[in-house]
Amino acid sequence: xxxxxxxxxxALTACGSSDSSSAGSCNVTKVADDVLPSVVKIxxxxxxxxxxxSGEVIDSAGHIVTNNHVISVAANGGSVQxxxxxxxxxxxxxxxxxxxxxxxxxxxxxPEGMTVIGIGSSxxxxxxxxxxxxxxxxxxxxxxxxxxxxxxxxxxxxxGESNRHALLVGALQTDASINPGNSGGALVNCNGDLxxxxxxxxxxxxxxxxxxxxxxxxxxxxxxxxxxxxxxxxINTGRVTHAYFGLQxxxxxxxxxxxxxxxxxxxxxxxxxxGPAAVAGLQPNDVITTIDGEAATTNVQxxxxxxxxxxxxxxxxxxxxxxxxxxxxxxxxxxx
Length: 336
What we know:
Blueprint: E1 3-5, E2 11-14, H1 28-35, E3 39-46, E4 49-57, E5 63-67, H2 68-71, E6 79-83, E7 89-98, E8 103-107, E9 118-119, E10 130-135, E11 143-159, E12 165-174, E13 186-188, E14 193-205, E15 211-223, H3 224-237, E16 243-244, E17 247-252, H4 254-260, E18 265-271, H5 276-279, E19 287-291, E20 294-295, H6 299-308, E21 314-321, E22 324-331, E23 333-334
Parallel strand pairs: 9-14
Antiparallel strand pairs: 1-2, 2-14, 3-4, 3-6, 4-5, 5-8, 6-7, 7-8, 10-11, 10-13, 11-12, 12-15, 13-14, 14-15, 16-23, 17-18, 18-19, 19-20, 19-21, 21-22
C-alpha cells in the first residue's frame, strides 16, 4: 500500500483499514436492506493497471459518486465497469474527476430497478452518532460495517496522482471499518441517508516506514455536503473549478525564523502577475503571518481555503514586509 505520513507514528492509505469498536444503535439490518441497492462495486482498468472500489447512485440519471483514486487508472482510454447489488454489471463512463479532493463522478445507462441513495447533510452530523459504512472492501461487494462518528472537521492529506496529495477537508472520522475497496462507498446515518464518502483509513507503519497492517479504528470520509457540491459541478461542467490565491509559499519553521530574524509564517516565494494576491498588494519575500484569522503555519491552510471557498470570496491576511506588519484582503479568483 502507498502511505502518506501524518501525525506521529500514523500513516494514511487511500482506502486503508480501520476497526469498528462500536456498532452504535442503528438498526443495521434495515439500513443495509434499504441502502445496499444504491451502492455499487467499481472495477477500473487501464494501461497503468487495475483496481476496485465502491460508489453510490446519486440521481435517477445514473450518476455515481466515487473517489478519483478508484477510477484514475482508467482516465486515459481505460474502462470502468459497475456492478449493482443484484449482480448486474454495466459499463460506465467518467463524467469528470477532481484529483485535488479525490472526488469523481461516473455515468451509467440506468438499469431497470436502479435505486438512488438518500442524501443527508454533513451539518446534521454529531460526534458519537452511529453510522454504517457500505461498499466492496477487497472486492467483496455488499459489505456492511457499523460504528460511530468519532470526530469531525479533520483535514487529512492522502496519496494522490503524479506524486501529489489529495486533501480531505472537513472530513468525518469514524471507527466503522474502512478497508481497501471501501473507497468511494457510502457512510450513512441510521435513516440510510448519505453523510460521507469513505476515502481513507489509518494504519500503523512498521520501523521501515511501510504499512504494518493492523486496524487502529481511524477512517475518514469526505462530508456529503462537500462531495455533492463537487459532484454537481462535475455533472454540470465536467470539472471542478477551485478558488485561487495566485501565489506560492513556503512555511518558515520557528527555528529558521529565529535564526534568520524573520517572523514565523509562510514566506511568499512567487506571486502571479495580475492574480488575486498581487491585486491585494502581496509581493515575493513577504511573510504571511495570519490567514482568515488563523496563524499561518502550513500551505495546507491555503489549499483548504481554495477548496472550501469560491471565486469572489474575500480572505483577510496579515503579512510582514521589511519588519512592518500589513493587512490586506485577497479576493479569490477562479483557478485558470
